[in-house]
Design a protein that fits this description.
The complex is a heterotrimer of chains A (about 425), B (about 300) and C (about 290).
Chain A: H1 2-22, E1 24-30, H2 35-50, E2 55-61, H3 66-77, E3 84-88, H4 92-97, H5 106-111, H6 121-125, E4 136-138, E5 140-149, H7 150-155, H8 171-181, E6 187-190, H9 195-208, E7 214-215, E8 218-219, H10 224-240, H11 250-258, E9 262-268, H12 272-280, E10 287-291, E11 301-304, E12 306-309, H13 320-335, H14 337-341, E13 346-347, H15 350-353, H16 356-360, H17 364-367, E14 374-376, H18 388-402, H19 407-421
Parallel strand pairs in A: 1-2, 1-3, 6-9, 11-14
Antiparallel strand pairs in A: 3-12, 4-12, 5-9, 5-10, 5-11, 5-13, 7-8
Chain B: H1 8-24, H2 28-54, H3 59-62, H4 77-85, H5 88-119, H6 125-134, H7 144-153, H8 160-164, H9 171-182, H10 186-194, H11 199-210, H12 212-228, H13 231-236, H14 245-251, H15 260-280, H16 282-292
Helix pairs in contact in B: 4-15, 5-9, 5-12, 5-14, 12-16, 15-16
Chain C: H1 2-37, H2 54-61, H3 63-96, H4 99-110, H5 117-128, H6 136-142, H7 154-182, H8 186-194, H9 199-227, H10 231-237, H11 242-245, H12 248-258, H13 262-291
Helix pairs in contact in C: 1-13, 2-13, 3-7, 3-9, 3-12, 4-7, 5-10, 7-9, 7-10, 9-13, 12-13
The chains are: A alpha/beta (about 425), B mainly alpha (about 300), C mainly alpha (about 290).
């Protein structure tokens, strides 16, 4: 008996040792600190549990935007950094040009079961360099949406029988609706004051007028400047009319909406989980989310895509065996991206995107129509998250919105600034 | 005896006599000045208090309008969360290792160089002294680009050694040691030399022990500066495991959204060790600052 | 005699070696390399080709760089003058106190100085928070009862960061002034007091002239320190109007670590380096003048 126990103990000890040896660690960096970060954490836990004893992902969430991409770039250049990281497709041209991304060979993708045909063609191609090599695998498509408080819209006569807002299309109608919703205690609309949010709204409004931000090496060329001015003037109107509180910090702008001090809120889909979780705890009113209304000629919404990339660690590349594990993990996350859709996003992986489960998923289905008219950031080494274009938004779009600059002046200065950097 | 290490005693006597003088006629203006100073001090410390007290409030109390100087429901939940969910313990250790290493290396190195320049004759002595004086205020932030390149060539980027490296340039420390060694009376030296003491014995048995106060003061101030340094550790380290506390608390996000209470709790934890050092060694720290500016009593 | 000289040399060499090695490797060598790099178009890591003074010409016409230079100078003025003056006033006030009151009051003024910049950043973001910050109660008084996002309003950004910086570093300057004040012999005051000199006359005729050298010292130390401003501006501006609030070190940081332009960043570094060295020399001369007094 004792001998048996002893053997069992030894055997299990041996197993543990063996397992400890076999466990490979994948170092992972992301910037997902919004409401969606909670979902990613859950998915990571699930992955680690499922691969217990084989693969363990050691994830770090770094500050979104400039801090994240600065770290990525400097660490890659010095042979440091993670084995895999999240990367915005909008930033691929810049990331590739600074050499911080490692191309992924077709054989590697195939070995992991990753197929181009499982992704939207534009989505897949956006992760390619001008050299035609694949630098990333998409995870999602994400955008901005309009969050709204049903009770408040109903009171203002702006809610249809289907529970969705009505009468918001057209700039004049939208402004009129804002006026109806705005009272002494309640703001019509809350918007975060960071440059990134400013860019997303501005780019949406510009594209709804068929405006081209960047074309043939020129920024806001010809009448695109006027369209940009129109877009900025509309954003400024929200603040000037008193419907949108000026300069609300990101978390505070969400808090305004969730505490019932703002009837509507424009922000990324990644804050959907924030609302869902609050509602689940019974701490939120009846809320909804829709595609950004059509202000001008036709619908269009800014969009970007989170993807997975392998950093080009100079002098210390991620070894082939590790790359295989990484790509397997990437594929796993895509296969499980229905869960990621719970983070508000639209899965990039078509088998999930087209599944009945996703199509039935609320509230995603209320705004997923935006994908049809989504517009991605200009393809330029000056564009994308943590790029000169995003900086320019902070420098010109937001000041114009807050009334510190006239829309025409801001549009012109933004054009000249970016054109100056394009040299 | 080094003239510079001032003590409270120097201060008390003149104050007492002034006080006597003041008592002769009721000093209204003086009272007002004192009052303003005290009120100023309270206002100055208030942001610290306010930050601290916020960490003890549950989030709903934090965002409630109105000014509540004490939490209604006292909670340590913010601290519990931060301690459990972030790698703050590891960042502490990293800060401790790097700041400790910087302190030890800088002080030893500076004591040696200061002694050599102060007491020894060797070729190039004047040149070195001139060079050190000239680099009194080295613009280290202007060198970040090349420090980064150099550290990456040495393959120490993203290591604790890489964090320590550029912090070791400390001409001011050498200057202060030199000045203090200069003021040690020559008799001590001559007597010891006659007794057959070597230069190293002179340094370790006489000069350093006589200037023990200077060494602790310099060590404290070097440690504080290293602990609080932001720019270089921020650039040199990319992985969470190697971050020190000042960088970690601004670069790493826990994925649970923004919370004022937690953000401040982590900040308070970051500030605590140095605050404690200061409160224990208040007089030494004060002296160290005065010394570091080259002011001697 | 000769042998002892030689042993003295050896001892000196051993004692000097660590300092010289570190100084050479971490200061002299990078400085030379920086000058070289500034004449190339190299990325942050890797080689580039010689472009002569192109980077400097580019800086001269770079709008962002001129903004950065101007903001740096503006910040220096905004922070150095008040921190010198306020520190002197505080020191005069504190110096009158005695015993434990003095310790406590001094600690209150000094405690912020020992905080890491990230902590200062967190505390003041919270103080000034647009929606929940306690300081907004004061801001409202000057802004028609409205809250105001201090760090996102361009004209207020630099003054606000300067204000926070003064709060943070004042304690250091106060100590320097107190050290200076303690050196003034009390007999002078007593003599003046017996002669019935007014408090103001005491200050202008005795205190001020004697404190003047310390003032110059504090002023120049702060001047050089604040030219290197980066941390606070970076932290408070992140996500905001980076272009409008750029300072010189931040420009270097952005070009090198974000845009991967090592050569241009090095050129900007050289400009900053020269600026600081020139000011250091001036300061050194002032200190020497004081020492010779």
């Amino acid at each position: 008996m004792i001998r048996k126990i002893l053997y069992a103990t030894l055997a299990s000890a041996a197993l543990t040792v063996g397992a400890a040896h076999a466990t490979e660690t994948i170092v992972w960096w992301d910037f997902l600190s919004g409401g969606d970060g909670v979902r990613m954490k859950a998915m990571l836990d699930e992955f680690n549990k499922e691969h217990d004893g084989k693969v363990h992902i050691d994830a770090t969430t770094l500050e979104w935007g400039v801090p994240f991409y600065t770290k990525v770039q400097t660490s890659a250049a010095t042979g440091q950094g993670p084995d895999v990281m999240t990367y915005h497709e909008s930033r691929m041209p810049l990331g590739i040009s600074t050499g911080s991304l490692s191309p992924i060979a077709p054989e590697e993708l195939a070995a992991a079961g990753i197929k181009a045909s499982d992704f939207g063609p534009a989505n897949w191609k956006a992760a390619q360099g001008t050299d035609g090599q694949q630098y990333a695998v998409p995870l999602d498509i994400h955008s901005i949406i309009l969050y709204y408080n049903k009770d408040m819209l109903r009171k203002a006569g702006l809610l249809g029988d289907d529970g969705k807002p009505k009468g918001l299309d057209g700039a004049a109608n939208f402004d009129a609706a804002l006026a109806k919703l705005t009272t002494k205690e309640v703001a019509g609309l809350s918007v975060p004051n960071d440059g990134a949010t400013g860019w997303r709204i501005f780019y949406t409004l510009l594209n709804q007028q068929d405006g081209q931000f960047f074309k043939d090496g020129k920024f806001l060329d010809g009448d695109n400047l006027d369209k940009a001015t129109t877009a900025l003037a509309e954003m400024q109107k929200w603040v000037k009319s008193g419907a949108t509180p000026a300069n609300t910090e990101y978390p505070a702008s969400i808090a305004l909406f969730t505490s019932g001090k703002a009837a509507m809120h424009i922000n990324g889909v990644w804050e959907v989980p924030t609302m869902v979780d609050l509602a689940k705890k019974g701490q939120l009113f009846d809320w909804g989310a829709i595609q950004i209304p059509t202000f001008y000629a036709h619908p269009a919404t800014w969009a970007d895509s989170h993807s997975f990339a392998i950093p080009n660690r100079v002098g210390n590349p991620v070894d082939p065996a590790k790359r295989k594990l990484v790509l397997d993990a990437v594929h796993w996350f895509n296969e499980h991206s229905l869960e990621w859709a719970g983070g508000g996003h639209i899965p990039a992986y078509l088998p999930v995107q087209e599944s009945a489960e996703f199509k039935a998923l609320k509230p995603n289905s209320d705004y997923s129509s935006l994908a049809k008219t989504a517009v991605f950031d200009p393809v330029s080494t000056l564009a994308g998250v943590a790029s000169p274009v995003y900086d320019a938004s902070g420098n010109y779009v937001i000041p114009a919105m807050m009334g510190d600059m006239t829309p025409a002046d801001a549009a012109k200065k933004m054009r000249d600034d970016l054109q100056g950097q394009a040299k | 005896m080094t003239a510079s290490v001032e003590t409270g005693a120097d201060l008390v006597a003149p104050l007492a006599s002034r006080r006597l003088a003041r008592l002769r006629h009721l000093d209204l203006v003086g009272l007002v000045i004192t009052l303003v100073t005290v009120v100023g001090a309270v206002l100055w410390a208030f942001p610290l208090y306010w930050g601290l007290v916020t960490t003890f409030k549950p989030e709903y109390e934090v965002v409630r309008p109105g000014v509540e100087l004490w939490p209604q429901h006292f909670t340590l939940e913010n601290y519990a969360h931060v301690l459990l969910q972030t790698k703050i313990g590891l960042w502490y250790v990293n800060s401790l290792i790097t700041s400790g290493a910087v302190t030890i290396i800088v002080v030893m190195m500076a004591a040696g160089a200061g002694y050599a320049i102060s007491q020894l004759e060797f070729p190039g002595r004047r040149f070195f002294w001139w060079m050190i004086l000239a680099s009194f205020m080295i613009p280290i932030p202007a060198l970040i680009v090349n420090h980064f390149i150099l550290m990456s060539q040495l393959r120490v980027i993203n290591t604790l050694a890489g964090v320590v490296g550029p912090q070791l340039i400390a001409p001011v420390t050498v200057i202060i040691y030199k000045q203090f060694f200069d003021s040690v009376p020559k008799d001590f030296r001559e007597a010891a030399v006659i007794d057959g003491a070597s230069e190293f014995q002179l340094l370790f048995r006489i000069y350093l022990p006589m200037n023990w106060g200077v060494t602790t003061a310099l060590a404290i101030i070097t440690f504080i500066a290293a602990w609080n340094l932001f720019l270089w550790p921020f650039l040199a380290v990319s992985s969470e495991d190697k971050m020190n506390i000042t960088v970690g608390i601004t670069q790493v996000h826990d994925a649970f959204g923004v919370s004022y209470g937690r953000d401040l709790a982590v900040a308070m934890l970051a500030a605590m060790p140095v605050a404690v050092i200061y409160l224990i060694f208040q007089r030494r720290v004060t002296q160290a600052i005065m010394l570091s500016a080259g002011i001697k009593g | 005699m000769l042998r002892s000289k030689r042993s003295e040399y050896t001892t000196a060499a051993i004692l000097m070696a660590p300092f010289v090695v570190i100084y050479g490797l971490l200061f002299v060598y990078p400085t030379i390399k920086m000058a070289q790099l500034s004449l190339t178009d190299a990325p942050l890591i890797g080689a580039g080709k010689w472009v002569g003074l192109d980077n400097y010409y580019r800086l001269a016409s770079d709008r962002l760089f001129s903004v950065a230079v101007w903001n740096t100078v503006y910040f220096v003025i905004l922070s150095v003058v008040p921190s010198t003056l306020v520190a002197m006033l505080v020191a005069l006030g504190v110096n009158r106190l005695k015993g434990w009151t003095q310790s406590v009051v001094l600690a209150a003024f000094f405690l912020p100085y020992i905080l890491p910049v990230s902590v200062v950043f967190r505390i003041w973001s919270w103080m000034f928070d647009k929606d929940f910050g306690i300081a907004q109660n004061a801001v409202q008084l000057f802004n028609n009862g409205q809250h105001l996002s201090i760090f996102r309003t361009i004209p207020l950004f630099m003054p606000a960061v300067a204000f926070v910086t003064v709060w943070w570093l004042l304690g250091f300057n106060v100590l320097l002034f107190i050290a200076g004040l303690r050196n003034i012999s009390t007999e002078i005051y007593e003599a003046a007091g017996l002669d019935g000199a007014s408090r103001w006359a005491q200050f202008t005729r005795i205190t001020w002239p004697l404190v003047w050298p310390v003032t110059v010292l504090v002023f120049t130390i702060n001047l050089i320190l604040q030219l290197k401003i980066f941390d606070q501006v970076y932290l408070f501006a992140n996500g905001g109007r980076v272009g409008a609030t750029m300072v010189m070190v931040q420009f270097i940081f952005t070009e090198a670590f974000q845009m991967n332009k090592g050569g241009l960043a090095a050129a900007a570094s050289v400009v900053l380096f020269v600026l600081i060295v020139v000011l250091s020399v001036v300061q050194f001369q002032l200190l020497r003048a004081r020492g010779a007094r």
